[in-house]
Design brief:
Number of domains: 2
Radius of gyration: 23 Å
Strand content: 35-45%
Largest sheet: 4 strands, antiparallel
CATH architecture of the largest domain: 6 Propeller
Distance between the termini: 35 Å
Oligomer: single chain
Shape: globular
Number of helices: 6
Number of strands: 24
Structural class: mainly beta
Helix content: 10-25%
Length: 459
Amino acid sequence: MKNRSSKVAAGAAGVIAVAMACAMAPAQAAPAPISPPPAATFAAFAFPDAATGSSTLLTGIRTNGSSNTSQVFMSGVYKTSAGTQGLLYEGALSGGGDWTLLNRPSTAGATTSSTALYGPDNIGTTGINVVGSYKTTQTGKLDHGVILSAPNGVGGAKTWTTLDATSLVTTGAHAWKAPAFNNTITLGSQGATVAAVQKALVARGFEIPGLGTSTAPLGTFGSGSKAALLAYQQANPGNGSANGQVNGSLYAALTTDSLKNTIAHSNRGGLVVGNFDTRLIEGRAFVTTTTGSKWFEITKPGAVSITAYGIWQNSTNNYTIAGGYFTPDTGQSPVEHGYLVTYNPSTQTLSNWASYDFQNRPAAVRVTHFDGITPDGNGGYNLTGDWLGVGAGSKGLGFFAHVPTRSNGTFGTATWVQLKNPGSAITSGNSVYENYAIGVYVNSGSSIVYPYLATILVP
């Protein structure tokens, strides 16, 4: 699995998807057992109005801005057979607060079919911004990013703003750039335009068996490529007759990219981070403003895809972003690393890249991903996320990590606490506040997702 923006909605869904994808990778010898970590205590944090058989996912946590640091916002997703709704909790960490179901209102031409909320942030001491995504009946399964702003609290006036990364599709640092068309492509044609057509066909779901091997070389239009093209032409009759050839207009239709999904994951200090997919490239990450007025694409050299799940503001032009990035899968571990990076919105530059693998043991880990970030009160950060070990039988689990910072602003070595809700088959770490982590778990033989709050007993 290379893309968390469309294939990972939140929480346990992400861990399950990672576990399933990595289980398909070549099996490796199981690592030596990891010694027991410092203790973490788990408590249920259920939505009291949840129906039998429903799932509740806790996805984000932040202070509500009051002087009482035990008062927080928690965002979430509530799933029933009837659909998916956004969920917000405001109250004490010990529970007993107020729960509100929040759904993006339908508008002309955009009838909301589902809403999911992923990351809250306080507006002073009275209000809240919370980001997430929604789907409409008009666009089917595709996600639109969204931010809900309620300056006087969820009981007051609310504004829903769509945050779609349309402007980055062709202008972002990782945008698809097809070579200029020169000649009609037919059986036996070769060159860069052929390679662009082959990649576009595969990205659009029309497979070319063995592409990139001697049986179907990239850049050579062979029988497999022609068969895929014919299937595309038959499925898209508006682009001309199904003749197995590519002319200029068909080339433009095939290789012109467009937005597919946008999901906003977290916000802090006026900025939002998240992920987007296009028709031709999956797994791209962004930073934008809470108004969607300015966009920047996050890229990392050597990464085949990247996520941005957490953001924290350190000062006016200094933010720390957390997420994960995938490297080419060569059958060796790992394939995804967690990362931290410093972002300056004034210059739109990234610096101080640091990569992380669970327990600092890359040979024993296939996937590490940071899902949430909060300051530790001493210049460093507490983080939470998910990890997956090597071997086909490895299960997805969560973690709490602490990363100090050095005097020059770079990030230090992480220390780790494994998160596994007692008795669960899969546990996900979704967000973090002070020494608390929230997430979800799934019991063996069940598809119901349950939320938890874990207290980390920091030494």
